[in-house]
Specification:
single chain; globular; 12 strands; about 400 residues; Aspartate Aminotransferase, domain 1; three-stranded antiparallel β-sheet; alpha/beta; seven-stranded mixed β-sheet; 2 domains; Aspartate Aminotransferase, domain 2; 14 helices
C-alpha cells in the first residue's frame, strides 16, 4: 500500500458526522448549511444541451477536449477577464476543480529532490490541497489566514528555509471558507516570491462568479495587469458554483503553457477525459451569462436577508465574495456550538476548526463556523432566526 495514505486526515464532513453521533435534534425541519453544495436548480440551457448530446456517450472522449469546448473557455476568459488565451496551449478541460487540483500536484511536485519538497497552503483551506501534497510525497506548510491579515495568507511568516524547499503554493480567491479576495498588491507580493524562489502557483478560483457586483480579480488577470506572462501560474475554475452543476464535474485550467503540456501528458495516463456529452453541455453553460446573473442575484438576496440578522448575535459580516459566511461564535468552542445548534434547532453548520490545522501555535478556524447559504431563501431566513434564538437562549 502507498504509505502516504496513512498520513491523510479525516475529511471535515467525516469529522462532522462523528461530532453529531448520538445527537438527538429538536423536532423541527432540518436546515443543512454545512456543505458547499449549490441547491439552486441547474439551468434549463444546460440540461437541454445535455439531453441533445446523449449520442456522445458512444464515443471515447479526447483528453484535450473538443475545439468548441476549448474555444468556449477562451471566449469566457476574454469576456470575464479581458484576456486573450491560446485555446490550444493555455487551456485544458478537467472533470471539476477537485480532481484537477489533486492531479496537478502529482504533476508538479518533484519528490526526488535531495530535500523534502514543500507545498504551501492557506489555513483554513480546502482539504484536497493537503491530501494532494501528502500523496505526492511533499510536506504541507500552513500559512495562517486570520482577521488580523484580512484573511489573507501571512507570507512574511514563512521562514526562508521553507521557501527554499517550496515547489507549489496554493491560493484560493475568493477564499473558502472566508470569502476573502486577493488584491492586486497581494498578487504582486506572491509573484515576487515566485520569481525569487521558483515555485508554481495554483490559483483556485471556483467561487469567482458568486459576488456582490464587483467581479473578483483573477490570478491570470492580475499577472496581465502587472505586465507579466503566465509563467509558473495556473488557475482552476468550474461550473459547479457558477452554474449550479456540481454533478457534471466540469471545469477547466488555464495558464502557463509549459506546465499545461506536462499536465496534459499526465492526464492522458490518468484518464481524466471529459465525456463528450458533458463537453456539449459545458459549452452551453460557458456561453451563457444570463443564468449566472440570476444565480448571483439569488445569493445576494440571501446575504442581504441573513447577514444583518445573524450580526445581532454573531461576529459576522459580508464576505468579499463566495456563498459562505465565516462567523465567530460566542464562547469560542465552534464544535460545541455546532453540536448544540443541531440538537436545539436542527440546523447543521461546519465547525471552522475542522477546516484548518493547528499551525504556529493556533488553529485559525477555531472559534468560527462556516455557514453555506445554499438552501432556499426561506430556509436561510428561518435558519438565521433560529440561530439568533439559540444564541440568545444559551447566553441567558
Amino acid at each position: 500500500m502507498n504509505p502516504h495514505l496513512d498520513s491523510l486526515q479525516p475529511y471535515p464532513f467525516q469529522r462532522l458526522r462523528q461530532l453529531m453521533a448520538g445527537a438527538v435534534p429538536a423536532d423541527k425541519p432540518h436546515i443543512n448549511l454545512s456543505i458547499g453544495e449549490p441547491k439552486h436548480p441547474t439551468p434549463d440551457v444546460i440540461k437541454q444541451a445535455l439531453v441533445n448530446s446523449l449520442g456522445g456517450l458512444s464515443v471515447y472522449p479526447a483528453t484535450l477536449g473538443s475545439p468548441e469546448l476549448r474555444q468556449s473557455f477562451a471566449d469566457w476568459m476574454q469576456r470575464r477577464y479581458g484576456l486573450q488565451l491560446d485555446a490550444e496551449k493555455e487551456i485544458l478541460p478537467v472533470n471539476g476543480s477537485r480532481e484537477a487540483l489533486f492531479a496537478f500536484v502529482q504533476t508538479v511536485v518533484d519528490s526526488q529532490w535531495t530535500e523534502k519538497p514543500v507545498v504551501i497552503s492557506p489555513n483554513p483551506f480546502y482539504q484536497i490541497y493537503e491530501g494532494a501534497a501528502l500523496l505526492a510525497g511533499a510536506e504541507p506548510f500552513y500559512v495562517n489566514c486570520t482577521a488580523d491579515t484580512a484573511y489573507q495568507p501571512d507570507w512574511a511568516s514563512v521562514p526562508e528555509s521553507v521557501w527554499a524547499r517550496t515547489q507549489l503554493v496554493f491560493v484560493c480567491s475568493p477564499g473558502n471558507p472566508t470569502g476573502a479576495v486577493m488584491s492586486l498588491e497581494d498578487w504582486k507580493k506572491l509573484f515576487e516570491l515566485s520569481d525569487r524562489y521558483g515555485f508554481v502557483i495554483a490559483s483556485d478560483e471556483c467561487y469567482s462568479e458568486i459576488h456582490f457586483g464587483q467581479p473578483p480579480l483573477g490570478g491570470l488577470e492580475a499577472a496581465s495587469k502587472l505586465g507579466r506572462g503566465f509563467e509558473r501560474l495556473v488557475m482552476f475554475t468550474s461550473l459547479s458554483k457558477r452554474s449550479n452543476a456540481p454533478g457534471m464535474r466540469s471545469g477547466f485550467v488555464a495558464g502557463d503553457a509549459t506546465l499545461l503540456a506536462k499536465f496534459m501528458l499526465y492526464r492522458t495516463y490518468q484518464g481524466g477525459a471529459m465525456s463528450p456529452t458533458i463537453q456539449a453541455a459545458s459549452v452551453a453553460a460557458w456561453n451563457d451569462e444570463a443564468h449566472v446573473e440570476e444565480n448571483r442575484a439569488a445569493y445576494i438576496a440571501k446575504f442581504q436577508a441573513v447577514t444583518p440578522v445573524l450580526a445581532e448575535v454573531l461576529d459576522v459580516a459580508l464576505p468579499d465574495a463566495s456563498f459562505y459566511l465565516w462567523a465567530k461564535v460566542p464562547g469560542g468552542d465552534d464544535a460545541a456550538f455546532s453540536r448544540s445548534l443541531f440538537e436545539q434547532e436542527h440546523i447543521t453548520v461546519l465547525p471552522g476548526s475542522f477546516l484548518a490545522r493547528t499551525a504556529h501555535g493556533i488553529n485559525p478556524g477555531s472559534g468560527y463556523i462556516r455557514i453555506a447559504l445554499v438552501a432556499t431563501l426561506a430556509e436561510c431566513q428561518a435558519a438565521a432566526e433560529r440561530i439568533v434564538r439559540f444564541v440568545k437562549t444559551t447566553n441567558q
